[in-house]
Amino acid sequence: MKLRMIAAFAAVCSVATVTPALASPALASPAREATSAREATAVTAGKPVSYPFSSSATRIVLERTGGFAGTSVSYVVDRSTAGGREPLRLAGSNDFRRLRGSYLPANACCDRYAYRVTVTWRGGQRKTVSTVQGTAAPSILWTVIQRTQQVGAQS
């Protein structure tokens, strides 16, 4: 099954071949399968080309405003932040990259927090996603918000 998925990926990307190491039966363990996708290497025109499945996030800035008291606070996570590895990994995922720019409720009333998450990836690319507390949004967004509040440097 895994070999078929890799072959399909190679066909869609017009890749000539995929490295034999990924087809090895020795990679059948679940732990090994989890890492092998990140290590996928294709060969095109005789040269190996890596296809990263996520890019590294280098910085997260979370701005939280509102609430009953109308407060404003920012949290920052970067590579030097203790415990920052998980939120940076999540923010670097393809799931996070696919998020829309905003997830806002039809009725913005009440004393809810508003969140604005700005992620910077290696290479300087940035994405900002806004939402409001209690709004239906993908779980990856709420997890990044929660983890950033837990470990981020508050300002």
From TrEMBL:
Organism the protein comes from: Paractinoplanes ferrugineus
The top of its lineage is: Bacteria, Bacillati, Actinomycetota, Actinomycetes, Micromonosporales
Q: Which residues form the signal peptide?
A: 1-23
Q: What is this protein called?
A: Lipoprotein
Q: Which domain of life is it from?
A: Bacteria
Which of UniProt's keywords are assigned here?
Signal
